[in-house]
Write a structure and sequence with these properties.
alpha+beta; about 15% helix
Length: about 400
C-alpha cells in the first residue's frame, strides 16, 4: 500500500504472510514514511515480525531523528523495550534507487547496481546488489543473493514483481484475489534426517570425515565431500559480527547479568561456551524462539543455544555468529540432521564451537551450509531420497 498523505509525506506499507511449516504461520509488517520536502528523508519506520509457532514478536521503530542525523530505535522483544541509536542515513531516493536506475536504461543482461537496504533483522543499513539476468517482453528479470541465496525476480514494465524464485525451492507468482483465497493447507516436515550408511563411534572426536552423496549433487556440494574439525570459512570478517540485532539482545539486563557468571579460570571463548551449555537444557521439539524466551524458560533447541551464545559473546565484545548446517545424529538409524552452532573470534582466529553439546571445538561431522545449499538438500531429500555414504574418517 503506497500513498501520499494530506501533509505530503510518502508512505510505503507491506504485509507478508507465509507458512513454511505446518501450524507455524509468519507475518512481517513494514511501514516506511518519508518527509514531504526534498531530500525526503526517512521520518518514521516500523517493522513487526510475528512468528506464532515460536511465540515471538519483535518491533523496531525509529522514533526520533538525532542531532547527528541518525535515528533512535525502540526495539521490543517479549514485551520489553530498549533504545538504540544508529547512524542511518536513508531517504526516498535510496528506497527507489534500483527502480530509478532501471528507468534510466535500457539495462542489458549482466549489468548490476548496488543500493542501500534497511535490514531490520540485523538493525543495520546494508548494501544490496541487483544483477540484470534478462530484458524480456514482460520487463526485467533480476537476481539478488537474499533472502535464500540466489533469488530471481521477474519485474513488469512498472518494476513491480510478478514472479519470484528463491534458492531453486520456492516458486511464487502474482495472482488476483480470487485465485489466492482458496489455498490448501500446507503440509510440511518439522524434522529432516538424511540417512547415513553406518554409525560413527565417538563422533565428537572425529577430526576428518569424507562423505559421498547419493545421488550426487555437484551444483550443491562437492562429491566426495571432505570435512575437517573446527571448519570456518576463510572469508569471514570479525568486524561484521559485532553489535545488536533482533535475534541478539546484547543490551538486555538478563544477558549482562548472565555474563557475570563467566568462569574466570577458563579462556574467554571456552568460558562462554560452557556458560551457555550450563544455562539451558536441551528439549527436542520445544524451541523457545528467542534468546529472552529461552532464558525465561531455561530450555530450548539448538538454535536457542546458538543464539544465546552469539548474544553473550557480542555483549562481551567478541565477534560471533550463529551458523546452520548438518551434524551427525547417532542412534539405530544414523543420520545427518539440521543443526545450529557458532563461529567465535578469539582475537587471533575464528573457532567453530557447539554450545548445545558443550563442544569448545566442533568435530568434523558439522557441515556448514548456506541457505541455498540447505534448501536444495531439503528438496533433494524429498524428491530424490538423498542419502550419504561414509567413505573414510579419522580421530584426533
Amino acid at each position: 500500500d503506497n500513498f501520499q498523505d494530506h501533509h505530503g509525506a510518502f508512505h510505503f506499507k507491506t504485509t507478508t504472510h507465509f507458512q513454511l511449516a505446518d501450524g507455524e504461520p509468519n507475518t512481517i509488517f513494514k511501514h516506511l514514511q518519508f518527509a514531504p520536502s526534498p531530500p525526503h528523508q526517512l521520518i518514521h519506520a516500523e517493522y513487526r515480525s510475528e512468528q506464532a509457532g515460536q511465540q515471538t514478536s519483535v518491533v523496531a521503530q525509529p522514533v526520533v531523528e538525532t542531532a547527528s542525523g541518525g535515528y533512535q530505535l525502540r526495539v521490543t522483544r517479549q514485551q520489553r523495550s530498549n533504545q538504540l541509536e544508529l547512524d542511518w542515513q536513508f531517504g526516498l531516493s535510496d528506497l527507489l534507487a534500483f527502480e530509478t536506475w532501471l528507468a534510466g536504461g535500457p539495462r542489458s543482461a549482466g549489468a548490476s547496481h548496488t543500493v542501500k537496504n534497511l535490514d531490520f533483522d540485523r538493525l543495520q543499513l546494508t548494501k544490496r546488489a541487483f544483477q540484470v539476468v534478462d530484458h524480456n517482453d514482460t520487463g526485467y528479470l533480476v537476481q539478488t543473493n537474499s533472502p535464500f541465496a540466489a533469488t530471481t525476480t521477474q519485474l513488469d514494465r512498472r518494476y513491480s514483481p510478478v514472479h519470484l524464485k528463491m534458492a531453486g525451492l520456492f516458486d511464487i507468482a502474482l495472482v488476483d484475489e480470487a485465485q489466492a483465497v482458496p489455498t490448501r493447507k500446507i503440509e510440511a516436515k518439522r524434522y529432516y534426517l538424511f540417512p547415513l550408511d553406518q554409525r560413527l563411534p565417538d563422533h565428537t572426536s572425529i577430526s576428518a570425515l569424507t562423505l559421498k552423496a547419493h545421488p550426487p549433487l555437484p551444483t550443491v556440494l562437492p562429491n566426495p565431500l571432505r570435512l575437517s574439525a573446527n571448519s570456518v570459512p576463510a572469508s569471514t570478517r570479525p568486524e561484521d559480527y559485532l553489535g545488536e540485532s533482533l535475534d541478539t539482545p546484547v543490551s538486555a539486563a538478563e544477558v549482562k547479568s548472565l555474563l557475570t557468571r563467566l568462569d574466570p579460570e577458563l579462556e574467554r571463548v571456552d568460558a562462554l561456551v560452557e556458560l551457555t551449555y550450563q544455562t539451558l537444557r536441551y528439549e527436542e521439539g520445544k524451541p523457545a524462539g528467542s534468546v529472552l524466551a529461552a532464558l525465561s524458560r531455561g530450555f530450548g533447541e539448538c538454535t536457542d543455544f546458538a543464539d544465546l551464545l552469539t548474544t553473550l559473546a557480542r555483549a562481551a565484545h567478541i565477534p560471533a555468529r550463529t551458523v546452520y548446517g548438518l551434524a551427525y545424529k547417532d542412534g539405530s538409524s544414523p543420520s545427518l540432521m539440521f543443526h545450529a552452532w557458532n563461529h567465535l573470534y578469539d582475537g587471533n582466529r575464528w573457532r567453530s564451537v557447539d554450545p548445545t553439546w558443550g563442544q569448545r571445538h566442533t568435530d568434523a561431522t558439522h557441515i556448514h551450509l548456506s541457505d541455498g545449499q540447505a534448501a536444495r538438500l531439503m528438496h533433494a531429500l524429498n524428491t530424490q531420497g538423498l542419502r550419504f555414504e561414509v567413505v573414510d574418517f579419522s580421530y584426533r
